[in-house]
Amino acid sequence: IIHPAIEALCNVMKAHALKADDIAAVQVGYPVRSWKHASISEPRDLLGLQFSTSYSLALAAIRGGTTPRQYTMDAIADPALKAFASRVTIVKDEDLTARFLRRMPSRVKVTTRQGVVHDELVADPKGSPNSPLTSDEIDAKFRGQVSDVIGTARCDRLLEALRSVERSNFRLRMRTFIAPWERFIRASGITRKRWSLRGAPLN
Asked: What is the C-alpha to C-alpha distance for residues 53 and 35, in angstroms, rounded to an integer?
């Protein structure tokens, strides 16, 4: 829901070499069907933060990203993010509601401190069926989600194994990454039925 607004803001900032401090106000228009899900202005927990357009745009503008590692309780309390978020308004856009019945677009209007207004419409955000991610973009997103959990080296090996699944024995390659979880499961006493992988029983 919020993705197109984030992309629109980033497009404007990149096209006009804007920084967060250059922006006086941001207006975000959504179709009526998605507006109500993305208009949390003062989130109190991580779920609310993820559905807050104002804070998501603040994260994109100030911290340069909106990956899971940026969505933290510290972000909610950050004065700089809070200040930027307070300059974001969310509106219902009837034109978007009528024009894009089966899509989730967003129109963003960025007003600079010099009074210049930049308008950006994103109807098909990156990753949607009409604007799919490239292989490199998928790899980058995978690394961003996984490397903090299992480490960069193992993440790269896992990614290579996934990319080569059609030309290799996938089950054997995956055992390298499953082994640590098997040890954890055994130590925790979790049942085999719940955690064993199809075709790869916990021996």
From this structure: 10
